[in-house]
Write a structure and sequence with these properties.
With 490 residues, this protein is α/β, with parallel strands linked by helices. It has 15 helices and 20 strands. Strands 14-15-16-13-12-17-18 form a 7-stranded mixed β-sheet, sandwiched between helices. A 6-stranded mixed β-sheet has the order 9-8-7-10-11-19, with helices on both faces. Bound molecules: nicotinamide-adenine-dinucleotide. One of its GO terms (molecular function) is aldehyde dehydrogenase (NAD+) activity.
Length: 490
């Protein structure tokens, strides 16, 4: 298949280190959110395809050459894989632009480098998975060793597909697991380009398998009796279904990376230009389609008018640049991922304008008639139960409210069912750390918008998920402890 000038693109499932035909007839067509043209079609993996992928991963885990690989061999394959992905950066970026409208500048500047860095980071961990021992004091010498979990699966969202490939598959491989990955049906092509790199990098057949499909394929994975662990990135609604399916099937271990409604608190002593720059760029990167985006802004009343004017100007400047092809290297802001996402975001804009009690400061509508572009939008002072304040929108939309005291800012920031991320802007580091400790969030930036990195854990408090990806915690999520006790009296 050819995608926007990229020829010979494979769209079949990748199982046992080969692209294979699908038994199922169902397909999903992906349309460009820039011009609505057809980008390509993927087969939907049915029960038979899912079973084939899982049994390939099981065989590779139990009896394949993979179980004899030393940790150094695993690391060597992973480092080669990272190089191969890095070399294909241009093509991968074009595919993200074509399928879900992510500007190539964003894919090349942030997403693919984060993917590559994460794979290299976990390659470094492969031969450093140590255990513990306890000398005899109660008749037993004790050993704790950390072992892989087995056959793991990953189901991903579409907004940073290759980051999810790395965050899920790389720690699993470093720990010695095998994997079945399903990308989002909105951005399925990048992982299919990456799939044969696993073979080229030296991973034996069955170690990593890629299948395509939508919710029905994801549900088959979540309910599968032979998958030992599943890691999911996506909405809270789907996350609940996955947790439920895991409990009702084989109690597979579950990591959930879900949505957010993250606060940004700007104190009166904050460096204003820095706060404006980060609140604007942090939200608008990927057109607001970032789980950690700070969408609830709380600003001290003494600087609120100046801050709101400044942010409005930046949003309007950004809006005036939107509408360009995300495949063009100079395009900074792309469309939303597809028509469904456009409908979702515009319905929140309508709710904001008609029932939230908020003042529309700027934006509030679609840009042009072609493509899925939405104006960067600010709502001021929504009611405390407004949908635009309570629910994740996943578009370039934020709310602003002012506060008087530090305690009030903390209370407002924590008044949400989510807890993924936060940002604090202040010149006082003691205040920043005091507030950071009180915020119920898994990740937080001081005087910056939050962006994940390879070394530190990423994940949420409350309904933003369970478990962590990235960092050492992301590796531990693919290991299980085994305790061995030796009777020293025998
Ligand atoms: P989604 O829940 O609609 O879909 C995510 C994935 O789940 C897709 O691959 C989809 O095919 C699959 N799926 C759908 N129904 C399923 C089912 N019943 N069983 C199993 N799988 C199923 O989410 P989305 O629209 O793709 O992504 C946006 C959401 O992802 C937002 O809420 C965003 O905040 C969240 N997100 C979270 C993180 C994080 O790391 N915390 C990162 C990015 C995105």
């Amino acid at each position: 298949m050819a995608v926007n000038g990229l020829s010979n693109l494979e769209t079949r499932h990748f199982i046992n280190n080969e692209f294979v035909e699908s038994s199922a007839k169902e397909t999903i067509t992906i349309r460009s959110p820039y011009d609505d043209s057809i980008v390509g079609t993927i087969p939907v993996a049915d029960e038979h395809v899912v079973d084939a992928a899982v049994s390939a991963a099981r065989k590779a885990y139990e009896t394949g050459p993979w179980c004899t690989f030393t940790s150094a061999q695993r690391a060597k394959c992973m480092l080669k894989l990272a190089d191969l992905i890095e070399q294909k950066t241009d093509e991968l970026a074009k595919l993200e632009a074509a399928s879900m409208g992510q500007p190539v500048a964003v894919a090349k500047g942030a997403i693919i480098p984060t993917c590559v860095a994460s794979i290299r980071y976990y390659a470094g961990y492969a031969d450093k998975i140590a255990g513990e021992s306890y000398k005899e004091e109660d008749g037993f010498y004790k050993i704790v060793q950390y072992e892989p979990i087995g056959v793991c699966a990953g189901i991903a969202a579409w907004n940073a597909t290759l980051v999810f490939v790395a965050w899920k598959i790389a720690p699993a491989l470093a720990a010695g697991n095998t994997f079945v990955f399903k990308a989002s049906e909105k951005s399925p092509f990048g992982p299919l380009v990456v799939a044969p790199f696993f073979k080229e990098a030296g991973f034996p057949p069955g170690v990593v398998n890629f299948i395509s499909g939508g919710g029905s394929t994801g549900a088959l994975l979540a309910a599968h009796m032979d998958i030992d662990k599943i890691s999911f990135t996506g909405s809270g609604m789907t996350g609940r279904k996955i947790q439920d399916a895991a409990i009702k099937s084989n109690m597979k271990k579950v990591t959930l990376e879900l949505g957010g409604k993250s606060p940004s608190i700007i104190f009166a002593d904050a460096e204003l230009e820095n706060a404006l720059k980060n609140n604007a760029e942090g939200l608008l990167l990927n057109s607001g389609q970032l789980c950690a985006a700070a969408t609830r802004v709380f600003v001290h009343s003494s600087i609120a008018p100046t801050f709101i004017e400044g942010l409005k100007a930046r949003f309007e400047a950004a809006s005036s640049t939107m509408g360009d092809d995300p495949a063009v290297p100079t395009t900074a802001l792309g469309p939303l991922a597809d028509k469904k996402q456009l409908d979702r975001v515009t319905s929140y804009l309508e709710s904001g304008k008609t029932e939230s009690g908020a003042e529309l400061v700027t934006g509030g509508g679609q840009i042009g008639e072609k493509g899925c572009f939405v104006q960067p939008t600010i709502f001021l002072n929504p009611k405390s139960d407004a949908k635009i304040l309570r629910e994740e929108i996943f578009g370039p939309v934020l709310t602003i409210r002012s506060f008087e005291t530090e305690d009030e800012a903390v209370e407002l920031a924590n008044d949400t069912s989510y807890g993924l991320s936060a940002a604090i802007y202040t010149a006082s580091m003691s205040r920043a750390l005091r507030v950071a400790t009180k915020l119920k969030v898994g990740t937080l930036a001081i005087n910056a918008s939050y962006f994940p990195d390879a070394q530190t854990p990423f994940g949420g408090y409350k309904q933003s998920g369970t478990g962590r990806e990235s960092g050492k915690a992301g590796l531990e999520a693919y290991l299980q402890a085994k305790t061995i006790k030796i009777n020293m009296g025998v």
